[in-house]
Design a protein that fits this description.
Strand content: under 5%
CATH topology: MetI-like fold
Number of domains: 1
CATH class: Mainly Alpha
Order of helices and strands: HHHHHHHHHHH
Helix content: over 70%
Shape: globular
Largest sheet: none
Radius of gyration: 21 Å
Length: 234
């Protein structure tokens, strides 16, 4: 069979797996969505306020913090996995919590991976706002809290983009999921680890099915962001 014929057959079989509701395929999808959505929400809760504080605050070492965050945005996933593994392995101080090879460990690792992205991009979004936004709010008698909300509202689409970027980073990573989740079937095996495993076993159609679903999730998130931005501009 030619290379094109093999690819075509794999794509056809991949769609058959998707539309047949294959349990293994959708188990991996479920784990990915559970873990990545949870880590993205946690990053939003912590990262957006931290990024805002970094943007409006003035303190010694601020530029160093920004440089460090920009560096951490490109941190390899296996490095994050390695450090978190060292903290949660059963021989560590918090080893008795039995976090290793669980979804909680994967969430923790993805949180550490994505948090610098949310903080750095939120900082950039708020820093780039026109100064008149803050000045107008203060002139109208808004307190510090209301002024902060006004600035966040004005930069909401850039902040949404930051969260979307963080979600895209975590749902497509493989190093953290493999090292901290252990790739346990029906438990911690997600889209990316399943693709790596099944493709290495020669199950190319299975890996292709998960790859298509991963692409659709990424496209869906970006279309949603564009839709919200369009609604906001109209």
């Amino acid at each position: 069979m030619s290379g094109f014929g093999f690819l075509f057959e794999s794509i056809v079989n991949a769609f058959k797996l998707i539309f047949s509701g294959d349990a293994q395929v959708y188990s991996a999808v479920s784990v990915s969505l559970q873990v990545s959505c949870t880590s993205a929400v946690l990053c939003t809760i912590v990262g957006v306020p931290a990024g805002f504080a970094l943007a409006v605050g003035r303190f010694r070492g601020r530029q160093l913090v920004i440089t460090l965050l920009n560096t951490l945005m490109a941190l390899p996933t296996v490095v994050v996995g390695l450090f978190i593994y060292a903290f949660i392995t059963r021989r560590s101080i918090i080893g008795p919590l039995d976090l290793l090879f669980t979804k909680k460990a994967m969430i923790l690792g993805q949180f550490v991976l994505a948090l610098p992205i949310v903080i750095a991009l939120t900082n950039s979004a708020i820093s780039s706002l026109d100064k008149s936004v803050r000045e107008t709010a203060v002139t109208l008698g808004a307190g510090r809290l209301h002024t902060s909300f006004a600035m966040l509202w004005e930069g909401r689409f850039a902040v949404m983009a930051a969260v979307t970027a963080a979600f895209g980073r975590v749902i497509g990573e493989v190093g953290i999921s493999m090292m901290l989740g252990g790739n346990i079937a029906a438990h911690t095996r997600n889209i990316t680890t399943a693709i790596a495993l099944e493709t290495s076993k020669g199950e190319f159609a299975f890996g292709m099915a998960l790859g298509i679903i991963l692409l659709l999730i990424a496209l869906g998130m970006n279309f949603l962001l564009r839709y919200l931005q369009g609604r906001g501009e109209s």
